[in-house]
Write a structure and sequence with these properties.
Blueprint (H helix, E strand, L loop, with lengths): L1 E5 L4 H12 L3 E5 L3 H14 L5 E3 L7 H12 L6 E4 L16 H27 L2 E6 L12 H21 L4 E8 L2 E2 L14 E2 H11 L10 E4 L7
Parallel strand pairs: 1-2, 1-4, 2-3, 4-5, 5-6, 6-9, 7-8
The protein binds NADP nicotinamide-adenine-dinucleotide phosphate.
NADP nicotinamide-adenine-dinucleotide phosphate binds next to helix 1.
């Protein structure tokens, strides 16, 4: 099966890519920075030489680039799985975050997924099967201090995902809202947090993979995951 993963160069996206490659699936990967993306590509190709893995850098927060990535993926046919994972965490509060943060957070955390999904959907709908995972967040469910534009964008991503789930029911395409709490990735590396206090990127990847393994008639709608000790 062809699996498309955005934000695949590191963190949760890289862990998701690896678990699908390890299980024999072909990968179509993207992220913004090409150095980290090609390093991940090389690492995965060395570990899993039996699968096809392709990667191309795009800034998915730009509509035209998100569409171009989709068109590039479609050269190999309709994907079986799409993981809308690319995202950025900018902490802040509505009252004092810099001008433009709302727009940039919405562009990377919501618009990227919206435009890529719209590019891929016609082929997936024609095929009548597929599974779309949308990386939301605990910040999609509850407001918290210093959430600001990030939290707003993640509420919006959850709204996008819920709408898509309803729309895709008759088309044989599953939609799962992935709702993790804190998981240790690069976005936490500058904090002082003990990696053992929060989840591993691989915890999220394992649940996404497991959800992709059910019968055609079963859909995991939400994956809510938190650190054992709860949110920070
Ligand atoms: N880690 C957590 O605690 C946590 C919790 C809840 C939800 N999430 C969500 O899970 C997803 C992954 O998070 P993570 O912690 O793994 O993040 P991460 O380690 O910072 O990795 C983010 C990935 O997205 C890519 N990316 C960022 N902006 C992009 C853009 N404009 N175009 C294309 N690619 C872009 C990055 O590549 P470049 O750096 O090259 O741009 C990177 O590959 C995000 O949507 C995040 O909001 C994470």
């Amino acid at each position: 099966m062809n699996v498309v993963v955005t934000g695949a160069s590191k963190g949760i996206g890289k862990a998701v890519s690896e678990i699908f490659a390890a299980n024999g699936h072909n990968l179509f990967l993207s992220s913004r920075g090409e150095v980290a993306l090609y390093k991940t590509l090389e690492e995965l190709l060395n570990k899993y030489p039996e699968v096809t893995i392709k990667a191309k850098p795009f800034d998915l927060s730009i509509k035209e680039q998100a569409k171009k990535f989709g068109v590039w993926c479609l050269e190999a046919g309709a994907p079986g799985i799409l993981v809308n994972n690319a995202g950025l965490f900018e902490p802040g509060s509505v009252y004092n975050e810099p001008e433009g943060v709302l727009e940039s957070q919405l562009a990377v955390n919501l618009h990227s997924a919206y435009h890529l999904t719209r590019t891929l959907l016609p082929s997936m709908m024609k095929k009548g099967s597929g599974h779309i995972f949308n990386l939301c967040s605990i910040a999609s469910l509850d407001a918290y201090k210093n959430g600001g534009a990030y939290s707003i964008s993640k509420f919006a991503m959850y709204g996008f995902s819920k709408n898509l789930r309803e729309e895709m029911k008759p088309h044989g395409i599953k939609v799962t809202h992935v709702i993790p709490g804190a998981a240790y990735t690069d976005s936490w590396s500058s904090s002082n947090i003990d990696p053992k206090r929060i989840m591993e990127a691989n915890d999220i990847a394992k649940m996404i993979f497991a959800a992709s393994q059910l019968s055609l008639q079963a859909c995991v709608e939400e994956l809510v995951m938190r650190p054992q000790l709860g949110d920070l």
